[in-house]
Hints:
CATH architecture: Orthogonal Bundle
Helix content: 40-55%
Number of helices: 5
Number of domains: 1
Strand order of the largest sheet: 1-2
Number of strands: 4
Shape: elongated
Distance between the termini: 89 Å
Oligomer: single chain
Order of helices and strands: HHEEHHHEE
Radius of gyration: 27 Å
CATH class: Mainly Alpha
CATH topology: Multidrug-efflux Transporter Regulator, Chain: A, Domain 2
Amino acid sequence: MNISQLARACQTSTDTVRYYEKQGLLAAPARQENGYRSYAPAQVEQLRFIRGAQALGFSLQEIREILPLLAQGQLGRAEIEQQLQAKMAQIDAHIAQLQHLKTELAATFASLRCAPESRLKTADAVAPDSGSGTGVAVLKRSFAPPKRRSTKG
Length: 153
């Protein structure tokens, strides 16, 4: 099958297939006399594995490390479980980080003391380091809407 047929069978683009080849995730295919790529059914399964692993959150580097084990038949259930548990731990850590960020955003929102129509400048706020790398913006002073000048004399 040619590159278009492979891409279509795996619901991806030909550019993605070429990229995976350049990255060493897919072995270079055989070439036809006209120079076109010719893919074997095994490469369809390999591409489907790559796309499925990406859908589960695995990076291309992680997939690159798994593929040789898979090709050599050395990927057993224990190794699969280990990979999946490590990925779940990464996701849990990311969720905790996002929850912390959400808490900091809520605290920043709650700390706003200026009128909704006020315009702020960088000099009006500071963002102390909270240790998470996100920082919480804290207003230096309260803002009130500008006073209107009296036209009476």
